[in-house]
Write a structure and sequence with these properties.
The protein has eight helices and eleven strands. It is α/β, with parallel strands linked by helices and 247 residues long. Strand 5 and strand 6 form a beta hairpin. Helix 1 crosses helix 2. It holds the Pfam family PHP.
Amino acid sequence: MIGLGLKKFSCDFHVHTCLSPCADITMTPRAVAKVLTEKGIDWIAVTDHNSAGNVRTFMKALTLQGIKVIPGIEVHTAEDVHLLAYFPDAETAEDYSSWLYDKIPDISIDPEKFGYQLFVNENDEFIGMEEKWLGQPANVKIHEAIQEILKRKGIFAFAHAERRMGILYQLGFIPPVANPVLVEVAFKKTLHEFPSNVAINCLHSSDAHSLNMLKPSMVVECERRTFEAFKKSLLIDYEARVRINWV
Ligand SMILES: [Zn+2]
Ligand SMILES: [Zn+2]
């Protein structure tokens, strides 16, 4: 069998859409695809706060533009920690999303104050609004959130470790919940602050809440942009396959 050969993909694995209350309402599929294309980014993850409600639409719309989307969620745990969950397909992400939805307190918000939570279709038309506030912690502890991700063959990464709602910021340490633990960091200098007792593979992403924030933050070298390749590159072949763009 002849291998396909390795290709370098430009990635941003933490992107919000108009469903996240704190994100700009311009984060719609066509608008996002246009900016990604301009910036040469061809592999992203959609990770809204506590919901996978716009994942399927983004996957469909961006695939048409040659951009691959990993379905994800940024889980807000009971410890006030943000945890990125990545899933093999839209169905699994949606299944996790409904499990999580029931754990989110039934508090609605005034969208004029806290931001609109909008469902969108592939033509950038708003088709609905989430009433429950997605920007609050779910009644789920970190270990339970992780267990449910792994049960669905997903992978997880602690989001923006050194910033507000990041694991280092909130708890002051990185729990040895995996080997290696995937940790998203915002600044290169944070790497020196990591404890040496935990094996860590680092991610870097835009955490874009608006179009201008999207950035080619990582390069992953693999044959094809599949979930399996994503998982293997980050967890197993990290040294050889992953490069971070810190600027
Ligand atoms: Zn976050
Ligand atoms: Zn985020």
